[in-house]
């Protein structure tokens, strides 16, 4: 599977236009959200129109331009962050394909406000702002493939493509604090310990799979 146009075009956008989401775009998003919730046991919710998810502390001018968001939640479990990262990557790329821009927010939002606007009852891990951006954003500064990956012997094309895709994933603070190592048909993903490691892990995992092709390898346990 090739690295998608959406992966190359997606960049964090923190300022939005007031243009409302058209009904067909909302319907497409809701259907994709349902698929992800079913597949990953999560409770991701779409809030449109007046998504006030920033408390007074984070209510900067640009944050106030956010009108729509996904509230990333689910029944608490040790791997909830990773499952939300994985499903969230799918939804961010689907949103990009629908002509929207996105912003993954793991820290600078109010959990209480997000619970209030979405009605989510599980643990809220992050919110993803979405809408028509004031800009399309810009490519993040990136590490080089050899800084985040290694393969025992000659790396196959699928591994190289997977790493390239993984480097396009959003990560906390843009740190790309992960490594991918391959051996035969097995790949190990490690993320540096942090409060955001689980979310990063899911986001990077999804991108690597799309780049490498899910049938070409297995994840090491
Ligand atoms: C797990 C995670 C948490 C994040 N938390 C915040 C945040 O609290 N505030 C913020 O402004 N951006 C946040 N971001 C956005 C990142 O800063 C941004 O995705 C990163 O710089 C990479 O840029 P890109 O999205 O254009 O690839 C977060 C991203 C991730 C993946």
Question: What report would you give on this structure?
Answer:
With 221 residues, this protein is α/β, with parallel strands linked by helices. The chain has two domains: 5-131, NADH Oxidase (3-Layer(aba) Sandwich); 145-219, NADH Oxidase. It is 38% helix and 19% strand. It has eight helices and eight strands; from the N terminus they run ααβαβαβαβαβαββαβ. The chain has helices at residues 5-9, 23-40, 61-64, 80-97, 111-118, 145-148, 157-166, 197-212, and strands spanning 45-47, 68-74, 101-105, 123-131, 149-151, 178-183, 186-191, 218-219. It has a four-stranded antiparallel beta sheet, sandwiched between helices. β6 and β7 form a beta hairpin. α2 (23-40) runs antiparallel to α4 and α7 (157-166) crosses α8. The chain starts with a helix and ends with a strand. The site of flavin mononucleotide has 18 residues, from β3 and α8.
Radius of gyration: 17 Å
The ligands bound in this entry are: flavin mononucleotide
Largest sheet: 4 strands, antiparallel
Q: What is the percent of helical residues?
A: 25-40%
Average of per-residue pLDDT values? 94
Number of strands: 8
Annotated CATH topology of the largest domain: NADH Oxidase
What structural class results from the helix and strand content?
Answer: alpha/beta
Structural shape: globular
What pattern of helices and strands is seen along the backbone?
Answer: HHEHEHEHEHEHEEHE
By DSSP (H or I, 4+ residues per run), the number of helices equals 8
State the separation between the terminal residues, measured CA to CA: 23 Å
CATH class of the largest domain: Alpha Beta
CATH level-four homologous superfamily name of the largest domain: NADH Oxidase
Low-pLDDT runs of 5+ residues are: none
Strand order of the largest sheet: 1-2-4-3
Question: How many distinct folded domains?
Answer: 2
Q: How large is the share of residues in beta strands?
A: 15-25%
Named at the architecture level, the CATH assignment of the largest domain is 3-Layer(aba) Sandwich
